[in-house]
Amino acid sequence: MKRLIYGLTAVILVFGYIACKKTLYKDPLAQLSTDVNYVTADDARKAVTAAYAPAAGNNWCCTYIQPGYMHWVLGNVASDDTEKGGESGSDQLYAQQVQLFNIPADNDATRFAYQISYVGVLRTNQVLENVPNITMDETLKTRYVAEAKFLRAWYYFNLVKAFGDVPLVLSSKFESYDLTRSPKQQVWDQIIKDLTEAEAVLPKASEYPAADQGRATQGAAQAYLGKAYLYMGNFAKAEEWFGKVIASNEYELSADYFAMFLRDGETSKEHIFQVKFLNDQGAQPANNNNIGTTFGSRARSGWGFNLPTQDFVDAFEPGDPRLWQTVYKNGDVMPDGLIANVGNSTTGYLTKKYYVPEFERVQGSLQAGRDDIYMRLGKVYLWYAEAANEIGKTSDALLYLNKVRQRARQGNNAVLPDVTTTNKDDLRQAIWKEQRVEFGQEYERFFELVRQGRAGKVLRAYAVKYNTAKGEGFRDGVNEVFPIPQTEINLSNGKIVQNPGY
């Protein structure tokens, strides 16, 4: 979708220039006035497009490349699903520090996650302050405002789950030294408010033209309302909002589990919210989604990060087709017919969901421009099942848990039998297990363990089982959140205080 290119475009360069967060960058010597930049409907479109741009950036692995939220480090490497990988332990030290829970306040991954999220917050605030004053089609204007509210909620969701209490900034006019941390419940309340207001306005996915695919939809707002309530422990409201997504009939499970992660699967009816990248690269590969390089084999021009663990592989039931659609090992036949070589992977595995087959490459580049998929119906079904089980809707929980398992069989009824238990505790465990394998390597695992209240127990058990330092250092009451970047504390003159234990 060329209108929503979250890369190096003129739109982002122009609006990124006026949208630099004061806590991150020096004030430019010559700033463009909002009186000049928020006048026409095209200005509004560019401003909203720029507000999407910081959502891209999970892909960047290195401090010398434009940073992003680092979902793969915070969601995968911090968990029992993934080893850091790379050339050595010191290769991208910030990821090694997260893996060992020896995380200093100047850790690059946490700093990038914090800062890029606030760039997103600032740009959404600029839209909310300036676009309503533009003379343009009122329906389109209202939609743009709703998109900005959705995005602000999305950025704050990522902030609060990673850092707990964070500054709640609802204006673009502020100084870094004025910022203080807001209680996380206040941040959650704002997330709910923004998503609720966005949901009432945003179009359904089917109502967008093809050129606007990737913009926030009503279903995306509903899904994140469900997820927000799930993280808050309000299972009744989570069940309600996930139920709205299901009842909308806007989405359906992809018949081919693996195919929806390829470029040709970007239009899958399963996808609810995804970050779009330019993928018609032309003669010269553009600097697009670099996750294929980051996760690719060092034997095949990749960097060899994000190594699935044996514990993750062993979590799959015998014959589950999703295992070899999620990871690969030496000797596997890949989608492009090549024989897999995992290079120096210390676990013996690499992540197949992000493998870039030769038929997707331009001039051999692993920067395929493939979408990052953050919300899809398979996740909604399993989160709905969890919420339904917790409020006593056992039959509904079993129905949607088994829908996911039925899709996972991919026609082989000899594997993955339906779950039948009606015991609440046993069903909860079955749902959690299914979430782990269904969401595998999709940046959810660590945060899921935290919200379920079992991160320390699971990670320390992993360290004992495999006689490794990974997970051993997790401290209850400390490592459920990451450190606030020291740079932000310094810029606030100490008004922003550090999380306990860091």
TrEMBL record:
Its main location: membrane. GO terms for cellular component: cell outer membrane. It is found in: Cell outer membrane. Residues 89-230 form the SusD-like N-terminal domain. TPR repeats lie at residues 219-252. Residues 269-502 form the RagB/SusD domain. Coiled coil: none annotated. It holds the Pfam family SusD-like_3. Keywords: Cell outer membrane, Membrane, Signal, TPR repeat. Belongs to the SusD family. This is Starch-binding associating with outer membrane.
